[in-house]
Amino acid sequence: MSTEEKSAAPRSLAEALRARDDLALAALLRSRPDLVAPVPTDLTQLATRAGTRASVVRALERLDRFTLQAAEALAVAADPAPYAELLALMAGDAGDPEVEAALPRAVAVLREQALVWGGDDRLRLVRTARELLAPSPQHPSPTGLGPTVREAAAGMSPGRVQGILGETGLPSTHDSVSAVAALAGLFADRRRMAALLAPLPAESREVLERLVWGPPYGQVTHDPAAHLRRLLDLGLLLPTAPGTVVLPREVALHLRAGRAHRAPEPVPPPVEAAAAHRPGIVDATAAGQALTALDIVEELLKEWDEGGPAVLRAGGLSVRDLKRTAVALDVPEPVAAFWVELAYAAGLIASDGEADERYAVTPATDEWRELPPAERWARLAEAWLAGTRTPGVIGGRDLKDRALSALGPGLDRSAAPEVRHRVLALLAALPEGAAPDVDSVLARLRWERPLRGPRQGQGAEEDLRSRLARWTLDEAELLGITGRGALGATGRALIGAPDRPHAPDAEPEGPGAKLPVHHRTPPASAPRSPAERAAAAAHAARLLAPLLPEPLDHVLLQADLTAVAPGPLQRPLADTLGVLADVESKGGATVYRFTPGSVRRALDAGQSATELHAFLARHSRTPVPQPLTYLIDDVARRHGRLRVGAASAYVRCDDDATLDEILADKRAAGLGLRRLAPTVLAAVAEPAALLEGLRAMGFAPAAESAAGDVLIARADARRTPPRAAPEPVPDGPPVPDDTLLTAAIRAVRAGDLAATTPRKPAPGAPGELPRTGAAETLATMQAAVLTGESLWIGYVNAEGTASQRVIAPVTVEGGFVTAYDHTADEVRTYPLHRITGVAELADDGA
Questions:
Q1: Residue 456: left if φ>0, alpha if ψ -120 to 50, beta else—which one?
Q2: How far apart are CA 49 and CA 820, in angstroms?
Q3: According to the model, what pLDDT value does residue 723 have?
Q4: Per-residue DSSP letters for 581-629?
Q5: Residue range 532-576, pLDDT digits in tens
Q6: Which residues contact 606 (CB under 8 A, 6 or more apart)?
Q7: Is the pTM of this model over 0.85?
Q8: Concatenated DSSP letters for 762-826?
């Protein structure tokens, strides 16, 4: 390497960043968004921020397993290390074609994220990353390697070091430094090390094998056995503390055949397809489940339409109320929690905020109900994909050992949107119609983010990302994003995946079918902007709409007092039928049952018998059965014969024989009835209790107003004040958009120009802001106006913040200087009294 090339090499991370173009800086700020909040003043500050512990930890957490392995190898390599040394540590003495092919990409990623800088001949891992990944007794290296011979022998006596040289057959030296260097050279020589290890007994070799892959530290007694004594005499084990020995790094690398890792993983594990289905079946299954999802959410909203359960004092839904909701929806409790959280994430339910705080339906629900079914589903799917609230943790406990409840605090998991999108993207990379093997999906996620889960040997508990992935697969099936485990066309559109050709018709179908391993790179996994998500959801809705059945305007009435809806019903028909009959069963077809109570409910809502007959005749494809006609007429004939009003309550009836029957009934004893007139009974009970009591006795009373008019018992829908859907909790700073990146890079470049522009020597310490008197400042400014030269100034703004700038003065008058500010790249005016000093730039400056 020439002298000029050596001088051109960057001497610091700041210089390496300074050599990058704007595209490379934008890639850095996009991959590490914490570096741009707030915008650094110059590239030196950017480099300093990139080396802070918190930022480096976050960057390391986002590396894939092989790139992290490369960083770990650099942490135990020389500093700086040539690329050849890193390759030897990763591929070993025998070499590995896959490692050799993948390592350049890993080094490029580390460079892009400013974790490594320098040319291929001088690769440097940033100091903070080296401290995090380098081995120490308190924090063993992930590679399992111990300290070098030089580091381990630092506390040994010179005589002991010379004794080791004699045992290994090396000539003695005059000082410990050269002795340690000779010993390190021996251990690094593969041929001489093989000769040194050959005569060792099997017990000694077994000790080395136990330590070679880490941890490299072991315990010895005061009087070790002969096979341990031989290892100590040869320096193959070096003492680090009383009773503690360590296997030197050079010895371990020889025993490992030069590899820093037991098993480098240059290629991501493929996502295996466990079963294959025809794409049309997948889409139809997903569409059917999407329709079921809409039915369940609407049933939940209907259940809470008149006011939902109370809010716990600590927030959230009680266990009892969740059980009631599960029974009402006819689903298990964990699934009920998912639907409740989904409706909350979509802004359809919320707390009413009143003194007696309860959950209720929001005004946005009315607008949502008017949308076509496909668009209603897209709203739910979009809210699920972007939400950070995680129903899967409900029933667990937080860090303060408090129970986590549905709709309560503590359910946000910032990684959830990224994991959901990534899992669906992995499914999109499979052949269309293929359902994935779950274990292969989890293995792929662990390879992509190894630091987000427990490291090897640190416990068997499944990491959060794996649990999120399992929940994602289950929830996507419930929501109709997947069908039979495979991603449908609407699911692909939802994540922005490109359309793919269908799998061949000859592919097998069923859970036992095996597909070839698919290596194609999945779509990007980063969550997108709200506008992009909305556009993708709209596209998914357009694809889903043709797959959903058209709402029907008819039912099939049967002689057993049931009505069968062979598909989804139009909303007016469904609403009226939901009052007139009770839902008996759901599925591909919904079965409604007519009972005296359901008919009375319709009459209470203001319908007449004539209107009910006309309604059924209009919407039935079969003749109205005679038993149903008789049922409606019978209930209508008895409906309203008894009138209940406020006395505290009374019963009025034109047929005094009916009142006699009521008084003679033992079940009326609790109502406190007494006759006021031949056609009037007074009651102690409240009107509502009196109505329920008489209905339990088989009568069909109607409530009446103070004027004697029948009261129509329509349920009052309860709505919260306008509520916004819960905002997702971001996983760290948001990724900056192109506009912010452009402005940030421009500001950093301008600030760096002011900080690095050469200037003539000035009084004061190097790097300090210039200090000049008012007269000298004014004279220098006026001279620069005449000559057109640029100046370096120190400036203190109104808030007292000091900064340095490079300006080209244009005019000086009235105590102000108007100049082109190279730092801000615009013309600005500065008060002269706020300029602390001025200095001329050097001849090779601006």
A1: beta
A2: 29
A3: 81
A4: SEEEE-SSSEEEE--HHHHHHHHHTT--HHHHHHHHHHHBSSPPPHHHH
A5: 888 999 999 999 999 988 888 888 998 899 988 888 887 788 778
A6: 712, 714
A7: no
A8: -SSSTTSPP---HHHHHHHHHHHHHHT--EEEEEE-TT--EEEEEEEEEEEETTEEEEEETTTTE
